[in-house]
Design goal:
Layout (H helix, E strand, L loop, with lengths): L1 E6 L2 E3 L5 E9 L5 E8 L6 E6 L5 E3 L7 E6 L4 E6 L8 E9 L5 E3 L3 E5 L2
Parallel strand pairs: 2-11
Antiparallel strand pairs: 1-3, 3-8, 4-5, 4-9, 5-6, 7-8, 9-10, 9-11
Length: 117
């Protein structure tokens, strides 16, 4: 089993920044991908950013240039630096980990990000 512990959410004004962290523990393979998804009220969950075992990054179009995903393999931690936040970024953000090349996938409990003046 794998456990994911997220932190860093909160309330921020439009244009502000937040950094989310997600620490993984448990039975993790040597190759694993991590990512962040979000779900706003009344909407489907969407993938925001993903980083492969080799460091390849992918982003949702609406966050490109504003969000940066990174990982610290020694700490088994993934980060999401969110800059120039907009009200439409308000959502519960979930960390995920794909263990090995084909899974299984694990999810964190979610952390609330609210962008409001």
């Amino acid at each position: 089993q794998v456990q994911l512990m997220e932190s860093g959410g909160g309330l921020v004004q439009p244009g502000g920044s937040l950094r989310l962290s997600c620490a993984a523990s448990g039975s993790i393979f040597s190759s694993y991908a991590m990512g962040w998804s979000r779900q706003a009220p009344g909407k489907q969950r969407e993938s925001v950013a993903h980083i492969s075992s080799g460091g390849l990054r992918q982003y949702l179009d609406s966050v490109k240039g504003r969000f940066t995903i990174s990982r610290d393999n020694a700490k088994r931690t993934v980060y999401l630096q969110m800059n120039s936040l907009k009200p439409e970024d308000t959502a519960v953000y979930y960390c995920s980990l794909r263990n090995g090349d084909y899974g299984p996938d694990f999810w964190g409990q979610g952390t609330q990000v609210t962008v409001s003046s």
